[in-house]
Write a structure and sequence with these properties.
The complex is a heterodimer of chains A (about 375) and B (about 350). With about 375 residues, chain A is α/β, with parallel strands linked by helices. In chain A, about 25% of the residues lie in helices and about 25% in strands. In chain A, a hairpin with a 2-residue loop joins β15 and β16. Helices cover about 0% and strands about 45% of the residues of chain B. Classes of the chains: A alpha/beta (about 375), B mainly beta (about 350).
Chain lengths: ~375, ~350
């Protein structure tokens, strides 16, 4: 399969972008439809900060594992504390934890911690890890009142009990609840008509556009029925803009190229300075919402990096390996027999899916300059603590 | 504007449901309500935004707080709103009735007392963070916790502070208020017992993770779930762990008590019935992917909302009936002799008969 994707960007002062969004490993005999032009509207000039994606360490990913970090599905707070301290020092080359955090945040910052509560309680950003990130941010001098833990859906945050579990003083913000679709900036949006939908714009969350100065991204390691995986890029892009589910309608998905494009929109791109991927639990089928424990591997790993493309590339490899080990098809497979509209069948049969997955969004994001998607160019450090 | 009858007297038991899980003992209406399978919707009313709290009922009026920040008073005979009160911020707190007042907290940190008849504000007090808990009134004093880590005791008539007590974590657990002590869970993972008159800590018992569940007390045993996946039974006098029961995931659902059995839901999607004395499992049943709402016990049945309202035989756990209401439903239902009132995430309030 070969295709070209044309994307029009009409942001202030920028030229149009052309993407070659070829899925390098796509196989199967299904022809994917061409994505429509995507119009990006915003009023921000790209920031000059070296911290914006791909950040201080392009192509570098530190993986820290500890077999004691998750025992009987419970995340061990002291163990993940040690993992995060080691991972941050290893990523930055600093000798102290506080100095490592100070590479990314400073006392005057308003720091947003972007969690992924979808899939809670079975697989979501672990509150234990978020607590340690809060400690780390505070160690760099950021007052607790300047720390905001957020996601789009308050309802999902509530299911994860984050409000009760996080330290006092931290603000926990759901950008919208089930009905109130407020909290978005009408001047920053991505516009495209994928399936004839009447509302063809996705607006950026106001808290990202105006409320935060830095973002620490805490995605989970999950298969995703439409995008192949949900990692750094999808957690940021689809967790920042609203009205994103319209990008996939069974069996087709336009998550590639939309996810990468959303991550490239300023000021999101400049503010997302650090990514810590929660691989305590690894969903290898049924994501993002599954609660079926049979397909959740308690991997007990964390990824650290500033390059979301490199991190998602490794995540995709890990999910693919697990799927191979379990004897189920690659997330790249486009086979008409695998598609089902029965969600229960999908959740319980790892050979079935709701969409033709499109993990090519990672490579597309790489072409937008958000990071490195070539495995051979990724500096993947591995540390096993226990 | 026609309001509820002016009274400070308790209404008939069969039609009164003044606080979360019917009374401050979390009985969930046990034994007093003929909960039977509903066969039609008597009325439904759209309140305009998600409802994440439980309704309360007294003297023919249902009081519902909605996410958008409104308290709604609904005439249950007519199925019509009589008045609404606008708070400063979103509301997650289940309202509580005391005399002629409706008490509830909101995300601005305020707790309001609103006149049941007129819908006018009588008093308000401020805390430093959101109040998702439900105020519990006993002997003229309202007790509530805030995400600012403090427990508050205020005079229910005028809102004057009696005492405050700082705990070590955020408080999203609605207190159980006994005769001399109150019990509450905390985000620091501890269950606290505080002296009712002074707020001083009598005892605290740690669990393995934060607590989002609200306690019940029966047979001098404090019953509460923790995010450490365990359901705890603590000696009400000492805080000693009498037993604990392991579920598959964290527990934010609050338990309901009926006789010698406590019923609680877990995020593993199961509903568990345990013997209060021993912690022995009577039955468990898979009811959904995730359970976070509290169960409510009627006569012979336990009702719970998880993607619809379901009733199970209290003795066996077998399904008695199910009522699908479309959208996900998380708030606890109100059971009366002739109706079930439920509010949904979609912002609908239903009267089922």
């Amino acid at each position: 399969m070969d295709r070209r994707t044309f994307v029009k960007a009409s942001c202030v002062g920028s030229a149009s972008l052309f993407l070659d969004g070829l899925d390098p490993k796509a196989f199967g005999d299904v022809t994917m439809p061409e994505p429509p032009p995507i119009n990006i509207v915003h009023g921000f000039r790209p920031a000059k900060s070296a911290l914006g994606m791909p950040g201080l360490f392009p192509g570098r990913v530190v993986e820290v594992s500890d077999s004691n970090s998750i025992v009987r599905n419970r995340v061990a707070q002291p163990v993940v504390r040690a993992m995060i301290e080691r991972g941050m020092k290893e990523l930055t080359g600093e000798h102290s934890v506080a100095a490592a955090w100070a590479k990314f945040v400073e006392p005057a910052d308003i720091v947003g911690i972007k969690i992924n509560p979808s899939g809670a309680p079975a697989c979501c950003s672990s509150p234990e890890i978020v607590r340690e990130i809060i400690n780390g941010v505070q160690s760099a001098g950021v007052p607790v009142g300047n720390i905001v833990v957020y996601d789009r859906y308050e309802y999902e945050i509530d299911v994860g009990s984050y409000q009760a579990l996080l330290p006092r003083g931290v603000r926990v913000v759901g950008i919208q609840d089930g009905l109130v679709d407020a909290g978005y900036d009408a001047n920053i949006y991505c516009q495209a008509t994928f399936f004839g939908e009447w509302e063809n714009r996705s607006y950026m969350a106001g808290i990202v556009a105006h409320g935060l100065t830095k973002i620490i991204n805490v995605p989970t390691m999950k298969d995703h029925s439409a995008s192949g995986v949900t990692g750094c890029l999808k957690n940021l892009g689809y967790g920042t803009f609203n009205n994103v589910a319209r990008s996939h309608r069974s069996p087709y998905s336009f998550t590639d190229p939309l996810i990468g494009l959303m991550c490239s929109v300023e000021p999101l791109r400049s503010k997302a300075v650090l990514h810590i991927m929660d691989g305590m639990r690894q969903v290898w089928h049924g994501g993002p919402l599954t609660q079926v424990q049979n397909f959740i591997h308690q991997a007990g790993i964390l990824y650290f990096g500033t390059d979301p493309v490199a991190m998602d590339t490794l995540e995709l490899e890990a999910i693919e390996k697990k799927r191979r080990d379990e004897g189920v098809p690659s997330v790249w497979e486009h086979n008409a027999d695998s598609i089902t509209s029965n969600s229960q069948e999908f959740y319980h049969d790892p050979k079935k899916n709701l969409f033709y997955r499109r993990p090519g969004h990672i490579a597309s994001a790489g072409k937008l300059g958000l990071g490195i998607a070539d495995l051979k160019r990724i500096d993947h450090g591995r540390i096993a603590l226990g | 504007m026609q309001g509820p009858p002016k009274t400070s007297e308790p209404a008939k038991v069969a039609t009164a449901w003044p606080t979360l899980l019917q009374d401050s003992s979390r009985t969930g209406g046990q034994g007093i309500c003929a909960a039977k399978a509903p066969d039609h919707v008597r009325w439904h009313l759209r309140v305009g935004s998600s409802v994440r709290s439980a309704p309360v009922l007294r003297a023919g009026f249902l009081y519902v707080t909605a996410m958008a920040g409104n308290l709604h008073a609904i005439d249950v005979e007519k199925g019509r709103q009589t008045w609404q009160f606008k708070a400063a911020d979103h509301i997650h707190s289940t309202p509580s009735l005391s005399g002629n007042k409706v008490l509830f907290g909101c995300d601005s940190g305020r707790v309001y007392a609103v006149d049941c008849n007129s819908g006018k504000s009588l008093w308000k007090v401020s805390t430093a963070a959101e109040v998702w808990t439900s105020p519990v009134v006993r002997d003229g004093v309202a007790y509530f916790g805030s995400a600012d880590s403090h427990m508050y005791a205020v005079d229910a008539d005028k809102g004057l502070e009696r005492w405050t007590r700082e705990l070590d974590g955020r408080i999203y657990s609605t207190a159980y208020v006994g005769e001399r002590r109150l019990y509450v869970g905390c985000g620091d993972g501890k269950v606290y017992c505080l002296d009712l008159s002074s707020g001083k800590t009598v005892w605290s018992t740690p669990t393995g993770n934060g607590i989002d569940s609200s306690p019940a007390v029966a047979a001098e045993t404090v019953l509460i779930g923790s995010e450490d996946f365990f359901f705890y039974a603590l000696d009400a006098n000492t805080g000693a762990v009498r037993w604990k029961y392991e579920t598959g995931l964290g527990i934010s659902s609050s338990p309901a008590v009926s006789g010698d059995v406590v019923v609680v839901g877990s995020k593993d999607g199961l509903l568990y019935a345990l013997e209060i004395r021993s912690g022995q499992l009577r039955w468990k049943v898979q009811i959904s992917d995730v359970v976070t709402a509290p169960p409510v016990i009627g006569s012979g049945v336990v009702c719970i909302q998880a993607g619809g309202t379901q009733a199970f035989d209290i003795a066996t756990g077998k399904v008695v009936w199910r009522a699908g209401l479309g959208g996900a439903v998380q708030a606890a239902p109100v059971l009366t002799g002739d109706a079930i009132y439920v509010a949904t995430n979609d912002g609908e309030v239903y009267a089922l008969e």
